[in-house]
Amino acid sequence: MTDRSETPAEAAAAWYARSRNPSMSAAERARFDAWLNADDEHAAAWDRVSRVNALLGQLGNDPAIEEMRRAAREPAQRSSRRWPLAAALAAALVAAVGLPLSSGWLDTASAPDLVVAQHYAAASAPRTIALADGSTMQLDARSSADVAIGSTRAVTLTQGRALFTVAKDEAHPFVVTASGSTVTALGTQFGVERGARETIVALLEGSVRVVTPAGARTLRPGETLRASDGALAVGDGAESVTAWRTGRLDFSAVPLADVAEALNRYATRRVIIADAALARQPYSGSFTADGGADALVTGLVATRTARVVARTDQSVTLAR
Fold first, then answer.
1. What is the Cα–Cα distance from 24 to 20, expressed in whole angstroms?
2. Which of 14, 37, 161, 280 is the most exposed place for a label (fewest CB within 10 A)?
3. Which parts of the sequence belong to the FecR N-terminal domain (predicted)?
């Protein structure tokens, strides 16, 4: 018997189950990125499955739902012809998500008008998502965020960076959380980046209040805030920090490790800085997102700032 082709909903459900497994390999992640970016229907199916699973998380300890969660956490190492139980159940639910989330399907008493979704951006390019309140969120490549829009407007940036254009609603502040820092806005445009060493907030329009473990600041247009290791610094350069949304990445005296991290979002071959002193070295430059990681390696080697100590299909490792 010939296996039928998976529908986008079935494939999205299977990928969702695999992505919940902490042991998901870099090769699998690359295959997921390729699938997600191959067709707009794939991205739409992924959003629907993510939205269903986020809603399931609000249903408490219902035994049937708990069984789905348990199954989703099991290693997805069965035959490629069979997807895990959680994937099958999630795919079955996707059909029901054609209803608006405010229609009452899967609504709970504790959150009667809450719209919840999890979004992921593929490796090759940023992605713009229209939120339920009229705001937009532009996720950079390899970035993800959990969104709750309803009686509250809350976003948790779980990876990478995003640019938010916030619909004005004085009764419902728009709050973004990243690595212990919160950004509160009413109607404005700002970017937030969750890095390995620091959290960055860049304000383009309006006003935002940023609260970090090191203190709180209200930013003006054009200002950036950097919070890391109990320290907080405010400066200029918001346009430069958010230039990624136009396909360019600008760096001014940025630690080389952070430059590599930013360029790796778009790279099929990641740059690894193995030398601690090299990783801390300030670097200034401008790159296009496409091919930027390769250009960085070429430039560092050509100027003898670094040398290649290892190279594979997935990564290139640099040291002094």
1. 8
2. 280
3. 10-52
Under 8 Å between Cβ of 289 and 249? yes
- Which residue in 38, 51, 45, 44 sits closest to 11, CA to CA? 45
Task: With cut-offs at 50, 70 and 90, classify the pLDDT of residue 85.
Answer: very low
SS3 call for 49: helix
Full DSSP string of 54-83:
HHHTTSTT-HHHHHHHHHHHS---S-TTS-
- Cα dist from 26 to 32, 33, 39, 55, whole Å: 10, 10, 21, 28
Asked if 205 and 221 count as a contact pair (C-beta separation under 8 A), the reply is yes
133/230: higher pLDDT:
133
pLDDT at 33: 77
Q: Indicate the residue type of 12.
A: A
CB atoms within 10 A of CB 317: 18
Residue 178's DSSP bridge partners are 181
pLDDT tens track for 114-130 = 566 666 666 567 889 99
Type of residue found at 198 = E
DSSP result, 235-288? EE-HHHHTGGGGTEEEEEEEEHHHHHHHHHTT-SSEEEE--HHHHHSEEEEEEE
| Helix 8-19, helix 40-56: angle, nearest 10 | 50
Burial label for 113, CB within 10 Å (0-12, 13-18, 19+), is exposed
β 181-185/248-255 pair status = unpaired
Residue 58 has a pLDDT of 47
The pLDDT tens digits of the residues spanning 218-268 come to 999 999 999 987 789 999 989 988 999 888 888 888 899 989 988 998 888
Residue appearing with tokens 């360019």: 248
CA distances from 136 to 71, 98, 149, 165 (A): 34, 21, 12, 5
Tokens of 138: 């532009």
